[in-house]
Amino acid sequence: MATYLIMFNDEWTPIMEMDDLRERGRAARAVIEEITAAGEFVFSDGGIDASTAICSVDPSSGEPVFTDGPFAETKEHLGGFCVVDVADDERAKYWAGRIAVAVGWPQEVHKFPHNRVRAEV
């Protein structure tokens, strides 16, 4: 098993009315429920954009220096994400495709580079 980040950039989402956005959210939650039922769900969240930035932290002085807002001026912001724990790249791509179709905008898939050991609870 390996963990993957399925994410989208806030700039990739179309401008839409709140009712449309809620409908896309319901569709995405339905896919998340499927991922959960398959035992492959780790965590997800969304609604992240420039307005949700709390601060940036610069460690270059050897001490953390906190400033308001994003680190650099950019139009690109993480909009939302889902972390899955699946057998392989193909399974991660499967879920990314399901999410992309549900919400109607592109998704990007990243494999975390470390080996993850599952803790049995």
Automatic annotation (TrEMBL):
Coiled coil: none
Database matches in SUPFAM superfamilies: Dimeric alpha+beta barrel
Pfam family, one: YCII
InterPro entries xref list: Dimeric_a/b-barrel, YCII
Domain YCII-related: 25-99
Family: Belongs to the YciI family.
This protein's name: YCII-related domain-containing protein
